[in-house]
Amino acid sequence: MEAYVSLWSADLLDLRAAVDGLAEVADGFHLDVFDGHAVPDLLFGPDLVAALRARTDALLDVHLMVAHPDDWIDRFADAGADLITVHAGACPDVRTTLRTIRSRGVRAGLGLETHEATGHAVAHFDDADRVLVMGTVVGVKGCEQDPATAARVEDLVAARSDGGTRSGSIPRIVVDGGIRTHTAPALARAGADGVVPGSLVFGADDPVAAVRWLHDLPAGDGAGTGGPSGDTKYSPSAGDVPSIG
After folding, report:
1. Across the strands, what pairs with 175?
2. Which pLDDT belongs to residue 39?
3. Which positions are annotated as active-site residues?
4. pLDDT along the chain (245 residues), means of 10
5. pTM for the structure as a whole
6. 211 and 201 in contact (C-beta within 8 Å)?
7. Cα–Cα–Cα angle for 182, 109, 43, rounded to 5 degrees
8. Nearest alpha carbon to residue 178 among 165, 192, 161
9. Which residues contact 136 (CB under 8 A, 6 or more apart)?
């Protein structure tokens, strides 16, 4: 699976080292954006994205958890974001918002929260380059993943395989929240294209090896294989990170 590493879990006093150390192996860097309204906290902004853009060519994956995402699209696009994800509940017309993101030459992502039916995301496949399946409630970390997450991934993968788009656009299915050594294998078997790991990577003795472990997880096709079964290559150690070797 692809790994879009969450910088929220990095050492915030040394993001340069976090990015430099993983730029050659990570599929991108995930930046959560909080405005104190949609989520009762403040985190990351366009200036940080611009600084990272000057530092790395890696994909910058911006996740807007803000009250008025339409007001921020141009700011983050101008800063150098490669992908911007929004949530339907914050958009007056999410289809228009997704199309606006694409009009800026940026990939558009649709967040699917734990309480939302997968059919909601399927209805927007034509306008989304990614569906970001939330494994936990937005704006929190360190929580266990919703046990229905792998099954939700299976539903989305099946809908995509059944020709769920009219335009031929095929969105990537990526999971954000609760990515641990005991949850990631089931997501891979369910057919997820990628995950957003945080502490699994930055809490590992060897963050590069942790990303490679995710890359090496056996992939499934979403055909009823998402449940917890079988063994994985590595065993979890303290902090739910891979123990390599």
Report:
1. 133, 195
2. 86
3. 32, 176
4. 97 97 98 92 96 98 96 98 96 97 98 95 96 87 86 95 68 96 96 97 97 94 49 39 38
5. 0.89
6. yes
7. 75
8. 192
9. 114, 143, 144, 145, 146, 177, 178
Contact 157/191 with Cβ under 8 angstroms? Answer: yes
SS3 readout for the chain: CEEEEEHHHCCCCCHHHHHHHHCCCCCEEEEEEEECCCCCCEECCHHHHHHHHHHCCCCEEEEEECCCHHHCHHHHHHHCCCEEEEEHHHCCCHHHHHHHHHHCCCEEEEEECCCCCHHHHHCCHHHCCEEEEECCCCCCCCCCCCCCHHHHHHHHHHHHHCCCCCCCCCCEEEEECCCCCCCHHHHHHHCCCEEECCHHHHCCCCHHHHHHHHHCCCCCCCCCCCCCCCCCCCEEECCCEEECC
User: If we measure between CA atoms, which residue out of 84, 92, 93 comes closest to residue 111?
Assistant: 84
Rounded Cα distance, 155 and 123, in Å: 13
The residues, any chain, with a CB within 8 Å of residue 60's CB and separated by 6 or more, are 28, 29, 31, 49, 52, 53, 80, 81, 82, 83
Residue with tokens 């990939």: 107
pLDDT at 137: 81
